[in-house]
Amino acid sequence: MQRYYKLFASIGIIIFIYLLLNIDLEILLTCFKKVNIFYFLISLLFAIPAIFVKSVKWLLIVEKEDRISLWKATIAWIAGFGAGLITPGRVGDFLRAKFLKSKIGKGLLTVFIDRVNDVFVLFLFGIFGVFTLFSNMFNLGYLFILFFVLFLIGIFVLKTEKLIRKIGKPIYRFFIPKKFKEKIGENFNIFYRNLKKLEKRKIFLNFLLTILTWFICFIQYFFLSLAFGLNLSYFSICLITPILLLVQLIPISISGIGTREGTSVLLLSNFGIPPELAIAFSLGILIEDYLLGGIGLVCWFKIKE
User: Fold this and answer.
1) By three-state DSSP, how is residue 86 classified?
2) Reduced to 3 states, what is the DSSP secondary structure of residue 243?
3) 65-79, 185-199, 240-254, 271-285: which has the minimum mean pLDDT?
4) Residue 96: per-residue pLDDT
5) Is 94 left (phi over 0), alpha (psi -120 to 50) or beta?
6) pLDDT in tens, 273-292
């Protein structure tokens, strides 16, 4: 499995190398030398309210008896975010579940619902962004809608316990080591038992806070764009960044490297921004992610000690 992940992850690296070979590296370095530190620090500061709201909206789904303090939930979120940076499709984010007082299956459910809302809202923003930026290229917009439909189908399949049991039975029977079977089976049952009991009101509140969270994140990326000297409005950032964030979830790269930069070049070309500056902005997102994720992983290892 790890061999296949490395193979897929190399696709993003190949894309990244191709981009570097086709731009002026001196201009790219100049973009970083000219970064406005003041705006960069403001951008980082906006990560604080974003993480706060993300932690609150996650706790909304967690049942009272399983809840942890808001401070610990914040640490859990940052730790999960850090783990997500080094795992395909950011599945490491599910590390959050280990911080809760509940069984792991119940905790995984809360992170699953939270992540589904995150991606669902990003898709809504992304579809609007694609049709706005590429109004003359409807095929691209319809392709994006196709991915959204596939995402919804995937969620429907995951919600259907009987279907997952049928699909997963051969994997469980032949590939799961015997010593893990009992625990996996137990947590599988806990996951679906609690999914049926989950209150729709809590999911809806989480959804509303997810929208608020992304608007705060877009402010963060707006100041990051100012730091790199991009002449973009906040509205333009709201169109661009959801697409970038969705693309980096595709498990064919490490931390979205390559796929995010290629998409950034394509999107920002609509605003007359050169590829070197587009790549610099994209790498700026990566740098901020690693600064926050690094803090999270340090906190996680400290707690484990």
Assistant:
1) coil
2) helix
3) 185-199
4) 84
5) alpha
6) 999 999 999 999 999 988 98
User: Which residues span the domain enclosing 98?
Assistant: 2-135+200-304
pLDDT in tens, 237-271: 999 999 999 988 887 777 788 889 999 998 998 88
Residues 133 and 267 sit within 8 Å (Cβ to Cβ): yes
Q: H-type helices in the chain, by residue range?
A: 2-21, 25-33, 37-45, 47-61, 70-85, 104-133, 138-159, 161-174, 178-197, 200-227, 234-247, 259-268, 275-304
- Of 278, 238, 282, 290, the closest CA to residue 257 belongs to 282
C-alpha to C-alpha distances, 221 to 73, 85, 292, nearest whole angstrom? 24, 18, 14
Question: Do 278 and 73 meet the contact criterion of CB atoms below 8 Å apart?
Answer: no
**pLDDT given at position 85:** 79
Is 184 among the domain residues? no
Q: Report the alpha-carbon distance of residue 235 to residue 288 in Å, rounded.
A: 21
Domain contains 175: no
Residue 228's nearest CA partner among 24, 29, 51, 46 is 29
> Is 33 inside a domain boundary?
yes
Over residues 53-80, mean pLDDT: 88
Question: Are 217 and 230 in contact, with CB atoms under 8 Å apart?
Answer: no
Inside any domain, residue 216:
yes
State the pTM of this model: 0.87
Alpha carbon distance 70, 211 (integer Å): 20
What percentage of the chain carries pLDDT values higher than 90? 38
Domain count, the chain: 1
